[in-house]
Design brief:
Length: about 260
């Protein structure tokens, strides 16, 4: 029994010494960290990131982010502004719902110590967005018609972010996404059925022009294709844009 105790003590001492030597060489004793994005919770998003140290100055990380489908924040104000716009199309947009899933792998370079202090993070992002919106309009017979457009948009892109990661006690940390800039390319496709009996050719043309002008006049959608039949409509769009990433605070557990 005494020999077993002695062996256990020697083994524990050796492991402790090894961990201290690694930390002294620049590698932390705890090379893994799981983090919860606190800022995203305000926007009904759930973001979790895993980070692992690879060398004294390099780490890799990957974030998963989920937003359950629902009405986005500030949508009521946006909807009011659209309806009050005299240049808006004759139709009425209502009931917008959005849900999304995103994965963001990144490579982190820490100038001083891995998983401590400021870092530069080149990253790649894939995002899938499910969207739905109602559209109400009147045909040539002054009959109110409704249409619900549903579909998905996929986004690919990459960029560079600067942040700061600092420890709290022995096992916790805060990771601050300060500011990042990225470029993304997006493709979207949406389809909807129109209420009532089949529309006339004139109504189909009018609806197509209204939808086309709404998309073309926006600040985001660039390559838009709209088609309308007597009882359905479809919209496809492709566009690229520059976006920001950052202002996020993540609470982490190190192990």
């Amino acid at each position: 029994m005494k020999k077993l105790i002695l062996i256990a003590l020697l083994t524990a001492t050796s492991l402790f010494s090894f961990a201290k030597d690694k930390e002294a060489a620049g590698m932390p004793a705890k090379k893994n960290c799981v983090k919860l994005n606190l800022t995203s919770l305000v926007y009904k998003n759930f973001g979790v990131q895993y980070e692992r140290a690879l060398t004294p100055k390099i780490a890799v990380a990957c974030q998963l982010r989920l937003m359950p489908k629902g009405t986005p924040m500030f949508y009521n104000s946006l909807e009011t502004a659209i309806q009050d716009d005299p240049n808006a199309s004759a139709g009425t947009i209502n009931g917008l719902t959005v849900g999304s899933f995103a994965i963001t792998p990144e490579f982190r370079f820490y100038p001083k110590h891995v998983m401590r202090g400021f870092y530069l993070a080149p990253y790649f992002r894939f995002r899938s967005i499910n969207m739905g919106t109602g559209y109400t309009f009147k045909d040539d017979n002054n009959v109110t018609r409704t249409m619900t457009l549903d579909g998905k948009m996929t986004t690919f892109g990459g960029g560079l972010m600067i942040g700061s990661h600092f420890n709290i006690g022995k096992s916790f940390s805060l990771d601050w996404f300060i500011l990042g800039l990225h470029y993304t390319s997006s493709n979207g496709s949406f389809d909807g059925a129109i209420s009532g009996s089949g529309m006339s050719a004139a109504d189909q043309l009018k609806l197509r022009n209204d939808l086309q002008s709404t998309l073309d006049d926006s600040q985001f959608f660039k390559k838009n294709v709209v088609s309308v039949t007597s009882n359905a409509a479809s919209v496809s769009t492709k566009f690229g844009m520059v976006g920001l990433r950052g202002f996020g605070l993540n609470f982490g557990y190190r192990f």
